[in-house]
Task: inverse folding
């Protein structure tokens, strides 16, 4: 390459300049280009359930509280202040003077309308359960209570919203930062139906407003100058690009066509790590395997323990996943106010012994066992590595079964598997989001595991106000989950890995990977 | 001719009915449904959603309802994108796929045609060998290899073109070449073969004997007869380019309907899958008809 003549270089440069065009005024603007990886399913806060949607909607709308950009703690948003009753059941929010993008005032009635809409059985909202914390919320959604006046939310006046909970919920304020609980404009929805979220029709109340949206091409947000905190917002535009091919998305970043991609193709990790733009920070999520405790061989707790203790998690994260994942034997990731319970250690000798006690010395007589995973590069390499560790350390031959996503979900829900890989991402920063799923018959349990003591502990934690006491209960419950009973086998804490242009400032790593745009600036 | 045309048109609806019915039931047999998520829905919530989309009815009832809607031209709401109807998504995506398909064909005819003719008049010389080797490559390199290769060279190394996306002519270049490579190669071979056959015939020798310049001989006299096989190939090629852009659209993040074709099946977005299938099959059936009519027009030996 060094021998290329100067004339050649000049020629290439001239052609390139002609093709690319001179950088225009756009370069001077504060524009943040985000590769959002998929087309958002909707922009209706009451309808959506995904993370890509959250990246857009949390900037377009605003709830009672908003997340602090660094530690995610709830800060005043639409609510100027709030008071909580002594028993932790009644929250009274004082709303600030804020306006919708069409000039109307945001009132407590907008919240009541939005919450009724989510809970109304006819709307079929997928995240209705986010409002089951309200008194009679679940009953209203099930049609057992038909009068919404009995549900625990009330507009005392235009500026006062009173919320009554079913049980004291320590993380309720965190929930108000979540899109399902955002206010929505009744008049716009009634005028346009499902079209109300489209450009020209949408009315929102967040720091940004919708400028344009072409499906599968791009969605543009622009600064909302009428927002109460518009002085904080420096960004003029945010462009969301829905490239779903992960390799293309990565190349777009490398070519400078986007400023942030929230993921990196597994095959590119090694080269990505060499670049200054690469980041990997702990995520509020755990990668683990489920055991189906209703079917052999995992119906024997000794087998489950043996399988778990035969896996070297350090090696797995160091040589296989490689992005900086944190090996873990606990299910709850370390978070504000909670330290996860240390689970079973890596101990091949003890694992062998346990397996022998279960009647399968050196793997002899072990029934045909399959490990289920869904189509994904990461899952493929992780399950292969674990398969080999089981073969080397226990002498077991476990077969890998690869199915497509929906088939995988279906088989897991029906307990039609023996061992399956899984992942869980917390909804809010509290151990409850990781532990209440394992109660008997819980919709996300999907292992067939049931333990009376466990159910009782979770129930008691749900009614306990004292934070220390609550954490103690959660600790005891987690011990049952990862030490004594092991219906699951945690492997590592996920990391947020991605590439962020170095000119982006005000973007703080945090465990939910949430980065409010109003704090972001671009340096040239 | 008119009778033939009418006969073919009458055959349209039954063909579509078979396709719709087949896809409808195959989709329902596939395990998993549109509302299976990694976070299990409470039973009541799931029941509420299914009631909203009539999924609580028997499959037969749903089928009859769907057929009725299709006859009225309504392909239903998308399950995955609840704010949008399938009609809307196809209306937005088809012009994009059409543009891409036509550009790919343009590339095929211009580059493939020129290369083929050049190869023929320089028969068994360097140009001939070079273009035919390239053509061999074009036919055999799959587009999921060619696409990323082009991105690497023209977007990452040279920085001339954007990696992916849609909106300006610069976004069109690499997807058109990737999608058109196969057809370009095919057209090059067809036009070379056609040209070789024509160039040896008596009327060409006569033209040369008159003292005409070689360029005039080739363009005026030989070319029109030589391109006949190419023209008849363009029908199937057009159908293929319009419906076969699934991979190319994904690699270059082109907002056409090809992308929905795959993702909606994976998402079990029943209405969207059926919508794209109905649309594509309508398109294919129509193209076949057009091609058959063109044959009759171009080749006097074919009559209906």
Result:
């Amino acid at each position: 390459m060094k021998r290329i003549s100067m004339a050649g270089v000049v020629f290439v440069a001239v052609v390139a300049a002609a093709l690319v065009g001179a950088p225009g005024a756009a370069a001077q603007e504060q524009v943040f280009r985000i590769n959002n990886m998929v087309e958002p399913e909707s922009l209706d806060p009451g309808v959506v359930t995904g993370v890509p949607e959250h990246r857009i909607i949390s900037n377009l709308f605003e709830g009672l509280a908003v997340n602090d950009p660094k530690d995610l703690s709830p800060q005043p948003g639409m609510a100027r202040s709030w008071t909580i009753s002594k028993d932790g059941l009644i929250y009274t929010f004082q709303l600030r003077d804020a306006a919708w993008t069409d000039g109307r005032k945001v009132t407590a009635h907008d919240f009541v309308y939005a919450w009724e809409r989510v809970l109304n059985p006819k709307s079929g909202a997928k995240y209705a359960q986010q409002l089951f914390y309200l008194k009679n919320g679940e009953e209203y959604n099930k049609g057992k209570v038909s009068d919404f006046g009995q549900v625990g939310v009330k507009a005392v006046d235009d500026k006062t919203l009173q919320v009554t909970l079913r049980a004291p919920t320590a993380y309720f304020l965190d929930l108000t930062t979540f899109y399902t609980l955002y206010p929505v404009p009744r008049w716009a929805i009634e005028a346009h139906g499902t079209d109300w979220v489209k450009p020209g029709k949408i009315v929102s109340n967040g720091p940004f407003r919708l400028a344009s949206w072409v499906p599968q091409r791009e969605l543009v947000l622009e600064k909302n100058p009428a927002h109460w905190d518009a002085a904080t917002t420096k960004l003029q535009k945010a462009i969301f690009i829905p490239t779903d091919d992960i390799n293309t998305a990565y190349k777009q970043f490398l070519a400078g066509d986007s400023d942030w991609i929230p993921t990196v193709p597994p095959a590119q990790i090694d080269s990505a790590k060499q670049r200054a733009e690469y980041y990997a920070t702990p995520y509020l999520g755990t990668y683990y395997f489920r055991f189906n405790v209703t079917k052999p061989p995992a119906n024997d707790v000794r087998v489950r323990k043996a399988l778990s203790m035969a896996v070297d998690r350090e090696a797995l994260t160091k040589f296989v996943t490689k992005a900086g994942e944190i090996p873990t034997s606990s299910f709850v990731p370390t978070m504000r106010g909670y330290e996860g319970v240390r689970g079973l250690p890596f101990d091949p000798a003890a694992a062998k012994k346990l397996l022998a006690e279960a009647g399968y010395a050196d793997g002899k007589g072990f029934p045909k066992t399959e490990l289920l995973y869904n189509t994904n590069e990461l899952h493929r390499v992780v399950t292969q590595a674990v398969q080999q560790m089981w073969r080397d350390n226990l002498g077991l031959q476990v077969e890998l079964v690869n199915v497509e996503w929906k088939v995988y979900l279906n088989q897991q829900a029906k307990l039609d598997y023996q061992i399956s890989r899984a992942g869980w991402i917390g909804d809010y920063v509290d151990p409850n989001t990781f532990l209440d799923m394992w109660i008997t018959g819980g919709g996300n349990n999907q292992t067939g595991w049931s333990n009376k003591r466990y159910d009782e502990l979770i129930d008691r934690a749900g009614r306990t106000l004292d934070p220390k006491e609550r954490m103690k209960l959660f600790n005891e419950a987690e011990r049952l989950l990862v030490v004594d009973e092991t219906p699951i086998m945690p492997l590592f804490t996920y990391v947020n890995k991605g590439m962020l242009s170095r000119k982006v400032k005000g973007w703080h790593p945090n465990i939910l990977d949430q980065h409010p745009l109003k704090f972001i600036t671009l340096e040239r | 001719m008119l009778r033939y045309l009418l006969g073919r048109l009458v055959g349209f609806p039954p063909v579509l009915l078979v396709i719709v019915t087949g896809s409808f039931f195959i989709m329902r047999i596939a395990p998993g449904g549109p509302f299976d998520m990694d976070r299990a829905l409470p039973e009541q919530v799931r029941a509420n959603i299914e009631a909203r989309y009539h999924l609580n009815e028997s499959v037969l009832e749903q089928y009859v309802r769907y057929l009725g809607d299709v006859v009225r031209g309504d392909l239903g709401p998308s399950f995955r994108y609840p704010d949008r109807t399938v009609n809307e998504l196809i209306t937005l995506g088809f012009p994009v796929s059409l543009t891409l398909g036509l550009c790919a064909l343009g590339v095929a005819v211009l580059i493939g045609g020129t290369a083929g003719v050049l190869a023929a008049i320089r028969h068994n010389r360097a140009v001939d060998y070079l273009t035919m080797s390239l053509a061999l490559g074009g036919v055999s390199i799959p587009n999921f290899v060619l696409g990323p290769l082009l991105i690497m060279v023209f977007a990452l190394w040279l920085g001339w073109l954007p990696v992916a996306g849609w909106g300006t002519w610069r976004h069109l270049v690499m997807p058109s070449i990737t999608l058109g490579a196969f057809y370009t190669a095919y057209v090059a071979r067809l036009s070379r073969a056609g040209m070789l056959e024509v160039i040896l015939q008596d009327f060409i020798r006569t033209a040369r004997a008159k003292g005409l310049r070689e360029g005039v001989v080739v363009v005026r006299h030989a070319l029109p007869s030589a391109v006949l096989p190419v023209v008849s190939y363009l029908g199937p090629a057009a159908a293929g380019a319009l419906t076969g852009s699934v991979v190319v659209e994904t690699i270059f993040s082109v907002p056409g309907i090809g992308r929905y074709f795959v993702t909606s099946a994976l998402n079990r977005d029943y209405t969207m899958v059926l919508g794209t299938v109905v649309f594509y099959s309508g398109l294919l059936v129509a193209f076949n008809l057009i091609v058959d009519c063109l044959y009759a027009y171009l080749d006097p030996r074919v009559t209906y």
Observations:
- Chain B has 13 helices and no strands.
